[in-house]
Here is the input.
Amino acid sequence: MNTVLCSVSGIQNKECKTQIKNALDKIKGVQEVGVNLTTGTVKVEYNEPATELEIKDCIEHTGFKIEYE
Here is the structure.
């Protein structure tokens, strides 16, 4: 199983958390989604056919911005 951890700006409340989780759950291969409101991070555990790029694109298309270092 693969894991991707993203810092995401704009996660402010439970509605945002639910929106992200619902969007990511639609990707085939995503096993578990964890959204931390305190740290503004999204942790996704996934298997093929899901990819890290597909997961990040999904988060950004949901209306949030991934903060790249």
